[in-house]
Design brief:
It is built from 8 helices and 8 strands. By secondary structure, the chain is of the alpha/beta class. It has a single domain, classed as Rossmann fold (3-Layer(aba) Sandwich), CATH 3.40.50. The strands form 2 sheets. A 6-stranded parallel sheet has the order 2-1-3-4-8-7, with helices on both faces. Strands 5-6 form a two-stranded antiparallel ribbon. β7, α7 and β8 form a beta-alpha-beta unit. α1 packs across α2, α1 crosses α7 and α3 packs parallel to α5. It is globular and about 45 Å long.
Length: 187
């Protein structure tokens, strides 16, 4: 399964959620499918997407929040899992695309390539709903269940280590920041 196929499968369901992505492939692929004002592409802050999503979820408890993260980013900031569990925002879905590599910066293997289980780590940190999925159908179902559960959920999607042909996007990052702020003010 590819990250792009997963994103395409749930893109229609993202219209009414604040979406925060990590840098690199996730941002480029989501933007290629179709940018929306409620999407924020967090650049140059590896490991902090879940922290930003947490802040939004806590400040806007009626707004569903989705964070698209990667295995390398989560491993860089494992404390983020314990912080998510501590505050347990019921409106946050944390999706971790695990391709077992740092694809956006050269493809170096991460600890998940040698057995580290991010869903088990999230559960051990205290996140109440965790799962690992390996098919687009299972991913889509897990995402739907997370949306209806109204409880903090981490979905680890095991995806192939493939990405876009280019990581350059046509959206000005400064404008994205202002656009996302305007969106948050009006929801």
């Amino acid at each position: 399964m590819t990250r792009l196929d997963c994103l395409r499968a749930i893109h229609p369901a993202l219209h009414d959620r604040a979406v925060v992505t990590i840098m690199g492939a996730v941002a480029a692929e989501l933007q290629a499918i179709g940018h929306r004002p409620n999407f924020f592409y967090l650049q140059h802050a590896m490991g902090l997407a879940s922290s930003m999503g947490l802040g939004i979820a806590l400040s806007k408890p009626a707004l569903p929040v989705v964070v698209f993260d990667g295995d390398g980013s989560v491993l860089m900031n494992l404390g983020g899992l314990t912080t998510l569990a501590r505050y347990r925002p019921r409106n946050l879905t944390h999706v971790v695309f695990d391709n077992e590599s740092l694809l956006s910066v050269g493809g170096f293997p991460t600890a998940t390539s040698t057995g580290t289980d991010l869903a088990a780590m999230a559960a051990a940190a205290g996140i109440p709903r965790t799962t690992t999925v390996r098919t687009v159908e299972a991913f889509t179902e897990a995402f739907r269940e997370a949306a209806t559960s109204r409880d903090l959920t981490t979905i680890v999607a095991k995806v192939e280590a493939v990405g876009p042909s280019a990581y350059v996007t046509d959206l000005a990052l400064l404008e994205n920041r202002f656009q996302f702020q305007r969106y948050l003010r009006h929801v």
